[in-house]
Amino acid sequence: SALQRGYELVGATHKSDKYLLVGLAQIDAVPAMKGRRLYLPQQDSIYTYMARGMLNEAGLSFQDLRSVQYEKFPQAGLTALTLGSTDATVVREDDWAEWAAAHPGTARVLATSQPVPGGFSVVVKKDLPADARNRLAQWFGTTPASTGLPPVTLRPEANEYRRVAELGLFTPTSLPGVSRITAREAQTLLAQGATLVDTRTEKEFKAKRIRGAVFAAYVEKSLKDVAFNAAQDDFQALDKLPKLDKAQPVIFACNGAECWKSYKAAKVAAAKGFKSVYWLRGGLPEWDAMGLPTEGG
User: Which residues does the chain have with pLDDT short of 50?
Assistant: First the structure.
C-alpha cells in the first residue's frame, strides 16, 4: 500500500514465498471449506490476507466458515490439523513440503497463492532528497549482524506487492456465474447490442462515463465481502431500467477493481434471472486507460 502512496522500494530480506491453503485429506476443493474450521495467525498477518484471497477466488468468505481461529504461531496450524482441532490452515510452501513428507496422507493442498515478497520489505519516501534515499538504501543493503535485520538485497516484482495490497480491499478476480471481461471485450459486446449498466453515483455518472452506458445506481450498505447481504443494499434502479431484457447480454461496471458496486450488482442480476451477465472489473478506469470513448463532464 505504501508503494501506491508516495514510497519507493529499497528491497526485501528474503526470497518470495507462495502460500498454501491446506485442508484435511477428505476436503477435496476450496468450495468444500464451507461450514468448516480454519486456523490462522493474527488477523493482520500475511497468512490471513492470503487465506481471504484464496477463499474469495472460490466465492467464499470467512463468514461462510463455521469458525476462524486466530492464534500466534503460523506453523501450529499444521499441528492443529494432526490433532483434529481444525479442518484447514495456511502455510508457506517451504514449511508444507517438510511437514507433508513427515505426515503423508494427512492433508492436501486446496489452493496456492501467487508469489509474495518474503521476510521484511523496506520502502522510503520518494520526496526525500536523492542522496538521503541512496544512503538509506546502502545502509539497509549492508546492515551489520548486530542490528538483527538481514541485509535488504532482493527486489521483488512490483506486482507481487500490488497483489497483497489488493487482497484486503479489492474485489475478487472472478465471480461464479458471471463472466469477467476486459474493456476491449466490453466494447465488442456493446457493438453487438449489449447494455452496459453504470452502478456508480449519479454525480459520478454525469461527470464522466463510458459512452453509451445507462445509469442504475447500486446503493451499497453491506460489507465489501463476497458474502455480502444484498438485502441491506438498494438496487431497485435495475428494475426501473426501460427495455432491459433479461435474455440479452448486460454488463456491469463502476470505479475499478477496488469498487464493489458492480461486483454486487452483477451477482444480484444473475440471481434475478438475467441470463448473460458480464462484469467489467476494471470499470471506467480500465476503459479510460485504453483510450476508449467516454462522455459527460
Answer: none
SS3 31: helix
- Whether 78 and 120 map to the same domain: the answer is no
Rounded-to-integer distance, Cα 90 and Cα 85, Å? 14
| Beta strands at 209-210 and 294-295: parallel, antiparallel or unpaired | antiparallel
- Tell me the H-state helices in the chain: 46-57, 76-83, 93-102, 130-141, 158-167, 183-191, 202-207, 236-239, 261-271, 283-289
Angstrom distance (rounded) from CA 186 to CA 234:
25
DSSP secondary structure, 91-160, as one string: EEHHHHHHHHHHSTTSEEEEEEPPPEEEEEEEEEETTS-HHHHHHHHHHHHT--GGGS-----B---HHH
On whether both 82 and 23 belong to a single domain, the answer is: yes
Q: What are phi and psi of 151, to 5 degrees?
A: -60, 140
Query: Which pLDDT score, from 0 to 100, does residue 168 have?
Result: 64
- Which grid coordinates are listed for 68? 476462524
Residue 190 per-residue DSSP state = H
Residue 4 lies in a domain: no
Instruction: State how far Cα 84 lies from the chain centre.
Output: 30
Based on the fold, state whether residues 151 and 202 are members of the same structural domain: no
- Domain of residue 28: give its range: 19-112
| Residue 12 counted as domain residue | no
Look at the pTM and tell me if it is higher than 0.70.
Answer: no
In a domain, 2, yes or no: no
Residues 261 and 195 in one domain: yes
Pairwise CA distance, residues 226 & 245, whole Å? 26
What's the total number of domains in the chain?
3
The cell numbers describing 102, all together, are: 513427515
Domain end call among 91, 112, 133: 112
pLDDT in tens, 62-121: 989 999 999 888 889 999 999 999 999 999 999 999 999 999 999 999 999 989 999 999
